[in-house]
Amino acid sequence: MTEEQTRVAGVPRQGADPDDTPLPDLPPLPADPRWKVEHLPLLTAISVALLLCAASVGFVVGGPVVALGAAAGVAIVTVSYTLTTLALAWADTVRPALVMPVGLGAYVLKYSLLGVILAVLVGSGWRGGVALGWGVVAGVVVWTAAQVWWVHKLARRK
After folding, report:
1. Considering the domain boundaries, does residue 9 fall inside one?
2. What are the pLDDT digits (tens) for 89-133?
3. Assigned domain for 54 exists
4. What is the pLDDT of residue 156?
5. 12 belongs to a structural domain
6. What is the residue-wise DSSP string for the chain?
7. What are 138-155's pLDDT values in tens digits?
8. Number of domains observed in the structure of the chain
9. If we measure between CA atoms, which residue out of 134, 156, 7, 33 comes closest to residue 89?
């Protein structure tokens, strides 16, 4: 049998120098990667405003415990979306091929943590648990709407 017949596809030959293999062409990195996170100050300000509104409504409806729950729900969304944005921007700057695995890992981690937090709070009977859930919903809707508006504004600018 010749070497070519015994060679397994995708496995380099024994003794072959791996430095001789050509690298794939990678897309160039952007000149200014700050555009990936330039929306964060605006979205953070919007989230802080929503947090204050949620806490105020929660306080009027059910007192300080409900206000804390509503504010915590908005804060959870703000922190998780901000960390995901930073992780994706880092991955895209380092190597664009990392965006998908880093993004999927971030989503699995944050939704797993959110599920655990909600399960613990619902199981404990904490009075602010329902308000926390509504705060999460409000945070997701407002953050997503603000990000869609930002992308639309950015597309018009280009």
Report:
1. no
2. 999 888 889 999 999 999 999 989 988 988 888 788 889 989 999
3. yes
4. 76
5. no
6. --HHHHPPTTPPPTT--GGGSPPPPPPPPPS-GGGGTTTHHHHHHHHHHHHHHHHHHHHHHH-HHHHHHHHHHHHHHHHHHHHHHHHHHHHHHH-GGGHHHHHHHHHHHHHHHHHHHHHHHHHHT-TTHHHHHHHHHHHHHHHHHHHHHHHHHHHHH-
7. 999 999 999 999 888 877
8. 1
9. 33
Residue at 22 is within a domain: no
Domain range for 144 is: 38-157
Q: How many CA atoms lie within 13 A of 156 on its CB side?
A: 5
Q: How many CB atoms lie within 10 A of CB 100?
A: 11
The amino acid at 48? V
Q: Which of 74, 68, 79, 76 is nearest to 126 (CA)?
A: 68
Rounded to the nearest 5 degrees, what angle is found at the Cα of 148, between the Cα atoms of 106 and 105? Answer: 10
- The pLDDT assigned to 17 comes to 56
- The separation between the first and the last C-alpha atoms of the chain, rounded to the nearest angstrom, is 60
Q: Is the pTM value of this prediction over 0.85?
A: no
